Amino acid sequence: MPQDKSVILKVEHLSHSYGEVHAVRDISFSVKKGDIFSFLGPNGAGKSTAINVLITLLPLQKGEVVVAGYNLRTEREQVRRSIGIVFQEITLDRDMTVSETLEFHGDIYGLDRNLCRTRTQELLELVKLEDKVSAYIKELSGGMKRRLEIARGLMTRPKLLFLDEPTIGLDPQTRRKTWEYLKSVNAEGTSIFLTTHYMDEADELSDQIAIIDNGKIITSGTPDSLKNSLGEDIIYIETSDNLAAEKILLTIPGVKKVQSSESRIVLLSGTDGTHLLPRIIETLTGHEISVQAVNLKKPNMDDVFIHYTGRELRE
Ligand SMILES: Nc1ncnc2c1ncn2[C@@H]1O[C@H](COP(=O)(O)OP(=O)(O)OP(=O)(O)O)[C@@H](O)[C@H]1O
Ligand SMILES: [Mg+2]
User: Count of alpha carbons within 13 Å of 284, Cβ hemisphere only?
Assistant: First the structure.
């Protein structure tokens, strides 16, 4: 594969199976240096499998991958030394202190003692745990542990930090704070690859998002381009007869797509929805279908996900 210096991660035709389970199926994408890139997908989509192959935890079965300039097939040790990892599960040792955790990690990776100490200081400040230096892991809250894991992932100053569901199980405030830490880490030059099943998280953090489902990338792009790809506005309508209404709505100019269920109709408007709405009500009423509720909104990541996967995230 030809090397492109502006790319920190390049993945071509990656597949991974557990026996008969095809967890990752022929995915290709690349991450630009300095970017935050997210894999967004539901439980079982193949996010952890993909990330575990990229961080050398699982063998590379099929495909070509270049991480930070190193070939994942032939230069696994160099790949390992270029990356930082934060796992989906908390992996800290309960009986170590905060500073021991970081210094021990640095030690394993061959950083000298002084460097370990100064980095530990810097990183604990970055994730706002400086007043917990001597606390034991078992005394930390879930959010603090997450932050400590992020700090640990950064001990070796990796070019690329991998995080598998970094805010899983955290309360909304702590999630938001974690996003801020990740942004500041990124602003200091670390490229970030993360997986999440939180729409808002992918939207808020990412320069680029790839939506993954059933082991495949369904669509990708910047958060804005994904949201814009749906059309301008989304209109939710409840009527006395959603099925009949669906057919009628499709004949109205400016209506891009209609999807109806028993409970409601989801309509994508190709133009400004506020102007389309009166027309919709008028037309349906003209066909003796009563409109019981309407709701108009700009597309968000949830809408993008539902649009491309054809289903709600947690059915
Ligand atoms: N060690 C394993 N052995 C067999 N099958 C596995 C193994 N790990 C994962 N799978 C299967 O591979 C598929 C993808 O799982 P994976 O853990 O990669 O999904 P995920 O997107 O990370 O999901 P989650 O959001 O729940 O973490 C699933 O069908 C899962 O059951
Ligand atoms: Mg996972």
Answer: 26
